[in-house]
Fold this sequence. Notes:
- By secondary structure, the protein is mainly α.
- It has one domain (2-206).
- Helix content is 74%, strand content 0%.
- The protein has helices at residues 2-19, 25-43, 56-81, 88-92, 94-123, 131-144, 152-172, 175-192, 195-198.
- Helix 2 runs parallel beside helix 5, helix 3 (56-81) runs parallel beside helix 8 (175-192) and helix 5 (94-123) runs antiparallel to helix 8 (175-192).
- It starts with a helix and ends in a 12-residue tail after the last helix.
- Mean pLDDT is 87; it is low at 201-210.
Amino acid sequence: MWFEFVILFLALPALLYLARLRVPAILMLWTLMTYCIFALWRDGNLSFVHLAPIGLAERLPSILAIFVPFVIATTVAVYRHASRDLFGFVRNRPLLWAAVMIAYPVLSVYPQGIIYRTFLFERYRALFPNTWLMVVVSALAFTFVHIVFRNWIALVLTALGGVLFAMRYAQTGSLFISSFEHALYGCWIFTVGLGKWFFYEGQWKQFKLP
């Protein structure tokens, strides 16, 4: 278990970072997700109940209570430091933006949810029996894989998101709810204009911070 954990969540991201391997992110993500699903199925921990939108309405107020201030703060930040990019994706490439809003939750968010929440919580429960410890481990693993973007702001954003999404999964046991929240933040980051700067390698150096 420890060997598998180190390989999947420490060695693999470090290899991608240090070797600068040009492997398509989606290919890596879906390959790892496939392994995780197989491992969960083999362990008898694969449940499609996690995929159902049960309980979302009940959790929506608490989700929005955090998300709305984030929307305001990031809008102000982009307006102040990169005003030309504010909603630039929507304004300049609306069809591609719409495609990303549809594809991103399915192709990226759900696989990440399976890997960093469902798989990690279910597979390594014996290694990290304390719920809060599991939340921290999940958040750290989720953050560490984002070193491939090579900027500290992406790591800060994913660390905060990793804690939030792991806590939501721990509270609800629902991959759908935690992935819905993850998709909200991810789609908003691309919409407001931050995706270009911090989630594509090399772009962040041009972003003017005080």
